[in-house]
Amino acid sequence: MMRTSRTTAGTAALLLVFGTSACAGGATTGAAGAAALSDETTMIVPFGAGGGSDIAGRTIAAGLEEATSSNVTVENRDGGAGAIGYSHLLSKAGDPNYLLATETAMLALPLTADTEFDYTDFTPIMSIGEDFTLLVVDARSPFTSCAEIVERSRSERVVAGVSGATGLDNVVFTMVEQAEDARFDRVPFESGGEVMTALLGGQIDIASLNPSEVLGQLDSGDLRALCVFADERYAYDELADIPTAKEEGIDVSYGQFRGLIAAGGISEEATEHWTAAGREFMGTEAYDAYMRDNYLQPDPLYGDEFRAYLEDSSSRLERVLNP
User: Is it the case that residue 149 has pLDDT exceeding 90?
Assistant: First the structure.
């Protein structure tokens, strides 16, 4: 039975995606017919190449290869604001050889459109940490602060690029609108890389992007960061001068988790296999380097702890997206 919730623009297109993807490729169905682990695993990234999800997926895949001595192939299945990737994993129920690099879209999609899945349809493996987005503008932009952008949006059109209609940046912009009586016109893209290209090309006015996606452009002077949507400033030297939105009177803070899920209905043995591999990866220098290079805050959670985190985060998102 399809779960239903408030439907947003674009639901018809998402339904077509779901109907097509759910029928694709699943050789196993449910725990009773759970497949065995093999030396070949597919890591699904539900967004395009170059964005934060892609970076996370490829890093985790490499770490799991190291931990298990198996081959983990990354497969970008972007489209439908992440729906195509998640629907593809849904079709692999019972097969432990399919993983997905997950983030906030897994929780937001079922709250904003009619979907065939929610987070309970998958097997939670681990959360590796959180990141907080920066509000950035082109270096030539007249905007000098986040407070100025909010004020301008109340009387003039401000165009915001978002990576997927249900991604973290869209959640943050919605929270700003609710808290500050602001209004943004959104243009959705399939990845943070596409959003940044549009910002540099003058197609949009503002964007909310992960530090890892924009640090190079901040260093080169092509982009400027006006604030970070976090409770405290980043401690990293490169970001320490960026004020929080709260410092500018905008009471908005929201972190995106980065994590790993497997198909639903896999065996307990397979779940333990991937959880153990994740723990091993997160004890390596590669994990430390990823967190450091991508400016994430470590928050490792496994199995049931990760499931509880998802339940709490889903409830919080519902209050934002379906007030």
Answer: yes
| Residue 305 Cα distances to 61, 249, 261, 267, 301, angstroms | 22, 34, 13, 18, 6
- Helix 268-281 to helix 52-68 angle, to the nearest 10 degrees? 100
Helices (H) and strands (E) in the chain, counts: 11, 11
Residues 6+ apart with CB under 8 A from 283: none
CA–CA distances in Å: residue 133 to residues 68, 111, 190, 256: 33, 21, 17, 8
d(CA 70, CA 91): 23
205 DSSP 8-state letter: S
In this predicted model, what pLDDT tens digit does every residue of 193-244 receive, in sequence order? 899 999 999 999 999 998 888 989 999 999 999 999 998 999 889 999 999 9
Q: Identify the CATH assignment for 11-20+38-131+256-321 out of 3.40.50.720, 3.40.190.150, 3.40.50.150, 3.90.280.10.
A: 3.40.190.150
Nearest residue to 130 (alpha-carbon basis) of 299, 316, 261, 253: 299
Reading the block at residue 230, the tokens are: 């976090």
Domains of the chain: which residue ranges?
11-20+38-131+256-321, 132-248
132-248: which CATH architecture?
3-Layer(aba) Sandwich (3.40)
3-state helix, strand, coil in the chain (%, to 5): 45, 20, 35
pLDDT of residue 166: 66
Q: Are 103 and 259 in contact (CB under 8 A)?
A: yes
CA gap 4, 32 in Å, rounded: 27
Helices 105-112 and 83-90 sit at what angle, rounded to 10 degrees? Answer: 100
Which pLDDT does position 81 carry in this prediction?
82
